[in-house]
Design a protein that fits this description.
Structural class: mainly alpha
Main location: membrane
CATH class of the largest domain: Mainly Alpha
Number of strands: 0
Largest sheet: none
Strand content: under 5%
Function: Na(+)/H(+) antiporter that extrudes sodium in exchange for external protons.
InterPro entries: Cation/H_exchanger_CPA1 (IPR018422), Cation/H_exchanger_CPA1_bac (IPR004705), Cation/H_exchanger_TM (IPR006153), NaH_exchanger (IPR004709)
Organism: Pseudoduganella umbonata
CATH architecture of the largest domain: Up-down Bundle
Low-confidence stretches: none
Number of helices: 20
Family: Belongs to the monovalent cation:proton antiporter 1 (CPA1) transporter (TC 2.A.36) family.
CATH topology of the largest domain: Na+/H+ antiporter like fold
Mean pLDDT: 79
Number of domains: 2
C-alpha cells in the first residue's frame, strides 16, 4: 500500500505542479516545480522511492522518445542534419574529454575513469527539459528543431561513453577499438530495431483490420506498445534501446502519411498520448526531487571520506562543473559555426552570421534532465575486488546538481537573453501551408462534383444535390481565393479576414456549447445527445484554433 500511495502522491504532485506554475508570482519552469514537490513528498514520507534504473528506462523513456521522434518536424531534422550530428556526437565526445579532465583536476580523489563517467552522463541534453524551457523563451523555430534533434540523438552517444568509462573504472583497462565497434552496433542495431518493429507491427495490424475489422481502442493500444517493443528488441540484441524508440517514432510519422487510420482514432489517440506525455514527464521530475534527500546525505558522507569537512565544497564543485559544461558547449558551437561559415565563403555562398546572443542561448539551452539521473543511478555499488565503487555518492550528487543548475540557469537567463530579439518567420513554412490548402481545396471541389454526379445518376433527389454542392464548393472556393497568388497587401488583408472569421466562429461555437450544456442540465436533452453534440463542436473548434 505504501508504494501505491507514493505513486498516487506523485501523480497528484504532477497535477498540482501544472496549477502552481500559473499561480506562483515568479515564472518558474515546470520541471523545477515538480522537483520541489518531489522533495517535499520525500521529506513528508521520510524516504524516497527506491529507483531501479533499468525499470525507469523501460517505463519512461521509450514512450516519451517515441513521441518526440514522431512529432519532431522531419523537414527541419533532415535540413540541419549536419549541425544536429555535430552536436549529438562530436559535442558529446568533446564534453567527455574536456569535462572529465576538469572534474579530475577539481577533485583529485575522484579517479580519472570515474571523472570521465560523470562527464559522460551529464553530456546528453534532455528533450523534456529543453521543451519546458522553450515554452517560456522566444527561441527561434529552427534553433528549437536543432535542439530537439540533438537531445534525441545524444542520449545514445553519452550513455555509450558512460558505459565504457564505468568499465574502465571497474577493470582498469580501455579498448578504443572495442568501444568504436560497440558504438557502431548500438547505433545501427538500435535504428534497425526501431524501424523494423514499427513496420512489422503496422503491417500485421493493417492485415488484421482488413480481414477482421477494427476493434474499438485496439489501434491506440497497439500504438502505445510499439515503443516498448522496439526498445526491448534493441536491448535484447545489445543495441541502443533509446535510438530504437526514437527511430520507431520517426518511422511512425512516415507510416501515418498513408492516411489509413480513421479520423476518430487519430483524435482519440492524440488525447491519449498528450495525457501520457504530461504524466510521464511530470513523474520523472518528481522522482528526481524524491531522490535529492538521499543523494545529499550520500554526497556528504563521500565528501567527509575525501577529507573535505566543509559542505560548501559540494556547491563549489557543482557550479564549477556546470559552468565548465557551459563553456565547453559555447566553444564547440562557436568553433563549428566559424568552420561552417568559412566553408560557405570558400564556395561563394552567402551565409548569415547569427548574433552572439543567439550563440549564448544555444549554449544555455543545453539543459540536462531525467536521462542523466537514470544513467548515473546505474553506477555499480562495488568494484570486482569487493571494495566500494570510488566516489559513487559524490558522482550521483554532482550529476543531480548539474541538472538543477542547468534548469535554473536556462529558465532565468534564456528569456532575458532573447528578449527584444526579432526572429523572422520561416517563409518556406507559410508557402508550404498555402500550397497544401490550395491543393486540398482543389481536390475537395473535384470530389464534390464527382459525388454530385454519382448521386444524380443513382436517382437521388435531383433538386437537393446541386444546391448542397454549391454551398460546400463555396467554402473551398473561398480558401482558393484567399491563398491565390496575390500581392502582399491583399495577403495581409485576407489574413486579417481569416482571423476575424475565426474569432466569430469560435464565439458562435462557445455559445452553442453553453446552450447544449444548459439543455442537458435542465433535462431537455439526454446526456448521450449532449455528449455527441459537444464532441462535434469540440472537433470543429479544434480545427479553428
Amino acid at each position: 500500500m505504501d508504494s501505491i500511495e507514493i505513486v498516487l502522491a506523485m501523480l497528484l504532485a504532477v497535477v498540482a505542479s501544472a496549477y502552481l506554475v500559473r499561480v506562483l508570482p515568479v515564472a518558474l519552469p515546470l520541471p523545477l516545480v515538480q522537483i520541489g514537490l518531489g522533495a517535499a513528498i520525500a521529506g513528508y514520507t521520510g524516504h524516497g522511492v527506491q529507483l531501479d534504473p533499468g525499470l525507469f528506462f523501460l517505463l519512461f523513456l521509450p514512450p516519451l522518445l517515441f513521441l518526440d521522434g514522431w512529432r519532431i518536424p522531419k523537414s527541419g531534422l533532415f535540413r540541419d542534419k549536419g549541425i544536429i550530428l555535430e552536436l549529438a556526437f562530436g559535442l558529446v565526445i568533446f564534453t567527455v574529454l574536456g569535462a572529465g579532465f576538469l572534474i579530475h583536476w577539481l577533485i583529485p580523489a575522484m579517479p580519472l575513469p570515474v571523472a570521465f563517467a560523470l562527464a559522460a552522463i551529464v553530456s546528453p541534453t534532455d528533450p523534456v527539459a529543453v521543451g519546458s524551457i522553450a515554452s517560456r523563451a522566444p527561441i527561434p523555430k529552427r534553433l528549437m528543431h536543432i535542439l530537439e534533434g540533438e537531445s534525441l540523438l545524444n542520449d545514445a552517444s553519452g550513455l555509450v561513453c558512460f558505459r565504457f568509462a564505468v568499465a574502465a573504472a571497474m577493470t582498469g583497462t580501455f579498448s578504443l577499438t572495442q568501444a568504436s565497434l560497440t558504438f557502431v552496433w548500438l547505433v545501427v542495431g538500435g535504428i534497425a530495431a526501431g524501424v523494423g518493429v514499427t513496420l512489422l507491427v503496422t503491417w500485421v495490424q493493417r492485415w488484421l483490420f482488413r480481414h477482421f475489422g477494427e476493434p474499438s481502442g485496439s489501434p491506440i493500444l497497439v500504438n502505445l506498445l510499439i515503443p516498448f517493443g522496439a526498445y526491448l528488441a534493441a536491448e535484447h540484441t545489445h543495441a541502443s534501446g533509446i535510438l530504437a524508440a526514437v527511430s520507431a517514432g520517426v518511422t511512425m510519422s512516415y507510416v501515418e502519411l498513408s492516411g489509413q487510420v480513421m479520423a476518430a482514432t487519430r483524435i482519440q489517440r492524440s488525447a491519449v498520448w498528450d495525457t501520457m506525455q504530461f504524466a510521464l514527464n511530470g513523474v520523472m521530475f518528481v522522482l528526481l526531487g524524491e531522490q535529492l534527500p538521499d543523494i545529499l546525505h550520500g554526497a556528504r558522507v563521500s565528501l567527509d571520506q575525501s577529507g573535505h569537512l566543509n559542505p560548501w565544497w559540494l556547491v563549489l564543485y557543482a557550479f564549477a562543473i556546470s559552468f565548465g559544461l557551459l563553456a565547453l558547449r559555447f566553444i564547440w558551437v562557436w568553433t563549428t559555426l566559424r568552420i561552417t561559415l568559412y566553408r560557405k565563403d570558400r564556395r561563394g555562398e552567402e551565409a548569415a552570421r547569427p548574433p552572439l546572443r543567439l550563440l549564448l542561448a544555444t549554449s544555455l539551452a543545453g539543459v540536462r534532465g531525467a536521462i542523466t539521473l537514470a544513467g548515473v543511478m546505474t553506477l555499480p555499488l562495488t568494484l570486482p575486488s569487493g571494495a566500494p565503487f570510488p566516489a559513487r555518492d559524490l558522482t550521483i550528487f554532482l550529476a543531480s546538481t548539474v541538472i538543477l543548475i542547468s534548469l535554473v540557469l536556462a529558465s532565468v537567463a534564456l528569456p532575458r537573453l532573447l528578449a527584444g530579439m526579432h526572429f523572422p518567420e520561416e517563409p518556406a513554412e507559410q508557402k508550404e501551408e498555402d500550397l497544401a490548402r490550395r491543393e486540398a481545396a482543389s481536390a475537395a471541389i473535384a470530389a464534390i462534383e464527382r459525388a454530385q454526379m454519382e448521386q444524380l445518376q443513382s436517382g437521388a433527389d435531383s433538386d437537393m444535390y446541386p444546391e448542397a454542392a454549391a454551398r460546400v464548393i463555396a467554402l473551398y472556393q473561398h480558401r482558393l481565393d484567399t491563398t491565390a497568388a496575390i500581392d502582399d497587401e491583399d495577403v495581409a488583408r485576407f489574413r486579417k479576414l481569416d482571423a476575424a472569421e475565426r474569432a466569430l466562429r469560435l464565439a458562435a461555437l462557445q455559445a452553442e456549447r453553453r446552450t447544449i450544456f444548459s439543455l442537458a442540465r435542465h433535462e431537455h436533452i439526454s446526456d448521450e445527445i449532449s455528449r455527441k453534440l459537444v464532441r462535434e463542436i469540440d472537433l470543429v473548434e479544434a480545427r479553428h484554433k
